[in-house]
Amino acid sequence: MTATARMPRIEQAGIDAWLVRLFSDIDESNMPWLTALVRRCEEDFGAALIDLVPSYTTVLVHYDPLILSAGEARARLVALLETLSPDSGEAVQDIKELPVWYDPSVGPELERLERHTGWERDKVIELHCEHVYRVFALGFAPGFAFMGSVDERLALPRLETPRRRVPQGSVAIAGRQTSAYPTMSPGGWNLVGRTPAKLFDRQRKGFSLLQVGDQVRFVSVTRQEFERLGGEVTPVEARS
């Protein structure tokens, strides 16, 4: 492995899992290494593999202890790490686009961003849309994708008082991360718009529209286009 990947550590995570820690810091450049590790584990563990959980800097490898002992599973990880190389750009999936209606009625913190940056709304929206984000992790709620990295000029801390109800599809920013809420839930991120995309579907293979390692771009649409795509225009209730 190269110096950019640091020195990986393999940590025991129970009787049937190992946690491979590749990095100490969160960075978009981690993703080709993490996706390569996931792919190699799928190939090398075969039927002994139960689950893989990639995240910002780690991959949790859950294996079948009836097929592999802890020592055998660790030895496989050591061997594949010795020859691990990052996935090339050719292996990267197509960019997934999420249509977003940016409006204060569904994204009340748009005005907070305008004050924070000193820019007009169109400039704020343009900056949020121009970057291609990487999905670092899935969590908090099924289908909730933590994506980064948001331009530092748009970085806002979480709300001091979280909302009890954030509408499904709400697009939000917290620090240098962005996401969209797959279902109505509590949340303290800054809401800037809403997407009509179905982010979590039990009938879909893999359930979540977005997966770790995906590239994602937000695309600004009009209210008319948002409604045509099935979006719900009910305004966000004040600190609901």
CATH-assigned fold name of the largest domain? Cyclophilin
Q: What's the β-strand tally?
A: 13
CATH-level-2 architecture of the largest domain? Beta Barrel
CATH superfamily of the largest domain: Cyclophilin-like
Number of folding domains? 2
Helix content: 10-25%
The helix tally amounts to 5
Largest sheet: 7 strands, mixed
Text of the CATH class of the largest domain? Mainly Beta
Low-confidence stretches: 1-5
Shape descriptor reads elongated
Spell out the blueprint of helices and strands.
Layout: E1 9-12, E2 17-21, H1 31-45, E3 49-54, E4 58-63, H2 70-82, E5 96-100, H3 110-117, H4 121-130, E6 133-138, E7 145-148, E8 163-166, E9 170-174, E10 177-180, E11 185-187, E12 190-194, E13 215-220, H5 223-228
Parallel strand pairs: 5-13
Antiparallel strand pairs: 1-2, 2-4, 3-4, 6-7, 6-13, 7-10, 8-11, 9-10, 9-12
Overview of this structure, please?
The chain has helices at residues 31-45, 70-82, 110-117, 121-130, 223-228; strands at residues 9-12, 17-21, 49-54, 58-63, 96-100, 133-138, 145-148, 163-166, 170-174, 177-180, 185-187, 190-194, 215-220. With 240 residues, it is α+β, with helices and mostly antiparallel strands. It has 2 domains: 3-90, Gyrase A, domain 2 (2-Layer Sandwich); 96-228, Cyclophilin-like (Cyclophilin). It is elongated. It starts with 8 loop residues before the first strand and ends in a 12-residue tail after the last helix. Residues 1-5 have low confidence and may be disordered.
